[in-house]
């Protein structure tokens, strides 16, 4: 086929898969890959965000037509994103993501399938890494090739088979194969930032470094995923929870700080805490120091308390 | 003093310290901080790279004068960097670093002091992170506030007390205090890239993100240092070396890949291997897979061999 997609080696052609398809290059490439590779039971999920009138409707018609020609099931959804934004006060990016999540969750229930394929590619990944890095707190984190996300109340397995493929290779393959796509489709993303990263920042960095920096950013995301895998392994390995389900302060103190944070974060989440942010986690880790106060209040009315050399989770 | 420098809380005012001082804002700020804070035994180490004729000589004279006014010992060195480059074929950056390392190593021997202070600040750190990220393989690695480096054959402890201080704060403090510095001093660095990152890339990213991104890059370097600390901890903790000093293949296979790499890398280095790069490490890690060949040749004539479920280091 001319595209290197590791996921294809293992993916079942007989299983049902949901595919998020906007009609743009990326997701149409995904769709054609599925068809060419003999996948039989694909549900093409397209959400019209209602943002660009007739053009939006044209995208939906295009996706519908191609999907039906492929003998795939097509599920079309439609929201009025501007109304949602006006009602909720959310940004375009946030409202769009929420609407898509709800739509995909509904598709998952309707078709009894929790596996969703998305068309993000390596150039998206490079932009994501750069953007996360600039926003802080996420380091070089990128999108994951396989990740569990709860969408519209349903646990979904989200897969990005094209994450290692360069956009230029997708485009070449699509052109050579004579496949079409819709330019400039609405994806309700924060387009201004994305476009400026793509069209200004990355070309400038490329010029300064005298090489294409996107593969380096993609590599950095892989390394970052490796670090997080190591942290998960270490949290499980380290055993700082005592038989009574409390955290052992002295054992925690001897660990690298990043592991202290990981272990405490894991402990709080496993006790059902939601809404843990970096600032709150800092205060919880602070309980390990001898001159700290004895407790940290948690969202929802509970608290984390230090007592007799242990950290105890007290629910509300 | 108006500058937040955590290192000052613990640093001994009576101990001897070497300070690398070019005469520019950063290192002059470092020097004045040391004087203001009551450090008594500072050796001001200045290397004239011989690159800009009279201006270089002027830098040396300036550093010498200020150092003597402070009652510090001043050690001036001089090299002809262009001649070194011509003879060795090294780049300006590489030759400059090597010359500085040899000079600082010689200072350490002469003054019997292995602690070297450098004036790198948070803006340098942000540029370093961005540059390392663009070059690949190093992720978000930055400079370290405290690191052991062998310079001119001598193990040195290199400290960067200003690494969390913004350049604008250093400059404000220097101006308010009436302290002078030399603009545009020769630092033999890869100035073109550095300057473009500083003057073009970072301002563009700042404009796109609508916030100063340098603190985020500095933060990313801290997180990266935390990850590497975790890896060191995990390599020590994991115990994959058997009593005969061989690596246990089955135990290694069960580890996250990044820890496999860390453990094998640590094992090779502890057996005295030098010149381990990423590509060679990949091949060594490959020995864990069942269908790999039985051995990988190492630089210097030795090899790493898989036998009876163990990896054995065989020296040349």
In short:
With 316 residues, chain A is an alpha/beta fold.
Strand arrangement within the widest β-sheet of chain A reads: 3-2-1-4-6-5
The rounded Rg of chain A comes to 23 Å
Biggest interchain interface, per-side counts: A-B, 40 and 40 residues
| SSE string of chain A, helices as H and strands as E | EHEHEHHEHEEHHHEHHHEEE
Q: What's the pLDDT, averaged over the residues of chain A?
A: 91
Cα distance spanning the termini of chain A: 57 Å
Major sheet summary line of chain A? 6 strands, mixed
Oligomer: homodimer
Q: How does this structure look, described?
A:
2 copies of one chain form a homodimer. Helix content of chain A is 49%, strand content 16%. Chain A has helices spanning 25-36, 53-69, 81-88, 92-111, 122-135, 167-177, 191-209, 214-238, 249-253, 257-270, 278-286, and strands at 16-20, 41-48, 73-78, 115-117, 146-151, 154-159, 247-248, 295-297, 303-307, 310-314. By secondary structure, chain A is α/β, with parallel strands linked by helices. Chain A has 11 helices and 10 strands. The mean pLDDT of chain A is 91. In chain A, the strands form 2 sheets. A 6-stranded mixed beta sheet of chain A has the order 3-2-1-4-6-5. Chain A has a 4-stranded antiparallel beta sheet with strand order 7-10-9-8. The radius of gyration of chain A is 23 Å and the shape is globular. In chain A, β1, α1 and β2 (41-48) form a beta-alpha-beta unit. The interface between A and B is large, with 40 and 40 residues.
């Amino acid at each position: 086929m001319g595209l290197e997609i590791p996921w294809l080696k293992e993916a079942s052609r007989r299983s049902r898969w949901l595919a998020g398809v906007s009609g743009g290059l990326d997701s149409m490439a995904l769709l054609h890959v599925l068809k060419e590779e003999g996948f039989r039971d694909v549900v093409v999920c397209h959400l019209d965000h209602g943002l660009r009138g007739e053009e939006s409707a044209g995208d939906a018609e295009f996706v519908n037509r191609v999907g039906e020609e492929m003998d795939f099931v097509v599920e079309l959804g439609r929201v009025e994103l501007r109304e949602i934004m006006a009602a909720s006060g959310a940004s375009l990016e946030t409202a769009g993501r929420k609407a898509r999540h709800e739509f995909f969750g509904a598709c998952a229930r309707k078709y009894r399938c929790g596996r969703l394929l998305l068309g993000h590619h390596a150039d998206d990944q490079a932009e994501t890494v750069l953007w996360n890095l600039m926003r802080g707190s996420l380091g070089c984190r990128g999108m994951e090739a396989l990740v569990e996300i709860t969408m519209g109340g349903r646990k979904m397995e989200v897969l990005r088979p094209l994450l290692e493929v360069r956009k230029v290779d997708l485009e070449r393959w699509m052109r050579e194969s004579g496949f079409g796509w819709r330019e400039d489709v609405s994806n309700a993303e924060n387009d201004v930032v994305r476009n400026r990263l793509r069209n200004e920042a990355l070309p400038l960095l490329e010029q300064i470094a005298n090489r294409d920096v996107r593969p380096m950013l993609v590599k950095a995301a892989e390394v970052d995923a490796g670090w997080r895998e190591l942290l998960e392994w270490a949290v499980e390995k380290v055993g700082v929870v005592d038989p009574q389900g409390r955290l052992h302060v002295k054992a925690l103190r001897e660990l690298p700080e990043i592991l202290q944070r990981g272990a405490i974060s894991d402990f709080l989440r496993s006790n059902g805490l939601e809404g843990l942010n970096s600032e709150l986690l800092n205060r919880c880790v602070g309980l390990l120091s001898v001159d700290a106060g004895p407790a940290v209040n948690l969202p929802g009315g509970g608290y984390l308390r230090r007592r007799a050399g242990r950290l105890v989770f007290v629910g509300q």
